[in-house]
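Sample intake sheet
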Amino acid sequence: MTSLDFISILPPLLCGNTSFGGQVVMRSLVGGRDYHDEFQLNRAPALHGQLSQSSTVALVVALTPSPVPLATPALPHSRSLPVTQEAPPPTRYPTVSPASEELVVSDYRYQFFGTSDSTTIMTSHEMMARAQATFPPKLSLALNSPHDLRPFFEAFPKAQLLWILLCEHEFVNFRPLQEPLPQDKDLPAAAVLNRWSRMFTACLLHYDLDIPSAVRFVGGIHTGVHQNWSTLEPLLYRASVDEKVIVELQRTFLLGAPKVCNAESTDENFHDYLGYGDHSTVLQDIIKTKSTVEKDFMRSYTLVANPLLSFFLRHCHFTPIGMVDLNKPYKSPSLIFDSTFHVKYTSMAINDWTTKKTEPPLTFAETFDRFLVSIYNGRISSPDQEIYLGDDDVSGAFRHVKWHPQMVGMHCYRIFGHVFFSTGLTFGDNTCPPNWDTVACARKQLAQYFWNQPDTITAVSGLIPTEIKTTPLPSPSEIRDFTPAEPNSRHRGVLNADGSCKSPLYDHHMDDVLHMEIGKNLMQAVCASIRALYSILGFPHPANGIRDCVSWNKFEETFSHQRKVLGWLVDSRRLTFSLPDYKRDILIDFITSAVTRRQLPICEIAELLGHICTATKACRWMRCSYFNLEHYLRVILKAHYYAMNNSKSPGATTARQSQKERLETQIPSKFCHRLESLVSKHIAQALWGSTKKYNLGTETLRELHVIRSSLQTEQWEIYIPQYIQRDPHFFSDGDASQNAGGAVSQSLGYWFRVMWSPGIRGGATHINC
């Protein structure tokens, strides 16, 4: 590499602009011409005569383009790729001939100094004149001796670091990046990671640190080329999948996520996050963290490079990462992006640049309730047959949906001596659940179509690595103990008018699909779900690096009438769901600790209430004790807030208003919309971050003893017919005033009256006021 080569790549390192997006408007910094390029996920980078890859281009805005047919043209050969050591390296960079002042520029990087033509001829004097007019003054002086790089290193110390990286990686062959990762169990993941890091570093340097170009070059799983839309689209229409789902899925496959992003950042913001690093949870169990990071890489969810490139990458943002579920039973540790975290109040995080309002709607919120309804309907149609419960899981889930290449730079993180680029969706972005939900909805409707196809079992039976095991059929005495289900106007069973069985609902909760089926239909139901998933995300092909997207560990369990579903133990014979034993033990230990200590920080009181609130979903009469505890927490919060703000003193309200007005004048106008959230965040930190311990009063201890005694002696469960919405069997009437409330039921023969406490009466507002 010559010194002139090195000089040519410095301008973009000094421009200080960062932007992200899908449809990119390219602006030449010299010629003033605009170039529009609607990038697709896996369109190969064009190297010859295109400013879209030039190191001197500033990305301006980003909007989602209209979908166009997927294309993967061969990589243009206008610029030589690194070669192996058996062949002599090509002359990749133009050089200055000692006998001539003419400089022939055929490499696109020199378009900064010339026009947008593929070949530009100019003298070295013209080149220096343009450079001196563009570079900062200190670097312009260094151009007087372009063959001596020491002035550059003195003016820009990091330039020497870049020079070393360029020299070390100049002849690294990075073509193997396009091949699947080796999955040899004898080859440590760390060794593969280090080798791929070196190759992708060379790839980034080759493309002048343009992350989208490097991602498109690598292609493969990182851009979802194995997801064949041309085959999937007619299948979706044949299955009568909802048109809106098809449109969103097409956008996801051809263009990636998110649907909309229009963002820009600053050098200050970049360095704030770069300097912050990661959250402390990554160090709580380094072995598990390292294993999780390596697993993501080996599954081709991330790309990895030398961390020294962090100082030179353009259009890039680093997000703090953390670890969750490090020590939770039945949970695997997961890496999360803290995409909302602000280093300081002016910081811009990923979730400030995107919003779920522009993304597809979410549909999984009421999955568990719909699953219980399907069990009830199944019992209506099959009163004396075993209903088997199960679920299947997607391995990787979010990661199968890919970021638009322009968005990969927004999803970087540094850990363990490497910089990682997430090419698949991450856990923490506000746009990730909606974009994955599109895949889940398409799978649901496609599975219902495959349910009615006679070849469904044979299509995937060879791919199922384990036998689906079921428990023995119930005995006649056990059948007599089944809880019956009564049809009503809301629930009429699962049979069609001709007696055939309706297709399962295939309700999903993120990456989990819930199954409820009688024995003779179980295999068809499971195979339809698996076939739909493979049809959308791709059938496994280890030779091409396509992993199995089904998590088969769920099928190692025996399908029976009992199943732990979304944290609850569901029983299709008794038509109940209950609190699992391990959750019961955790809650008992928590309450025992609280009762023993008698003093708790406010954050632990809130955590205890959260556990009790969830658990009492299966024990409704214990909700009364929960509400009493919740009232106690509210009293503590109010007292703590008043003590901090002295809000009962004269003029406190006026003082707080004046403080808000002062903050509005101090905060830059573009951040004024954050004022309310900043104040709320400050209050939350002051409240929940307090280490002060509060005494648990006599009433609170009494309620905790009642709840613990119930947990130790009673089964916390509720019958599904009592939980779901059904036609009523009885009626009641009630009313309330400012002093009391009451109700009466003629059919059940009861009435009650409750006198309000003085606190409630004092805060009551008449209905006619």
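Comment: Residues 581-727 form one domain. The longest strand covers residues 387-394.
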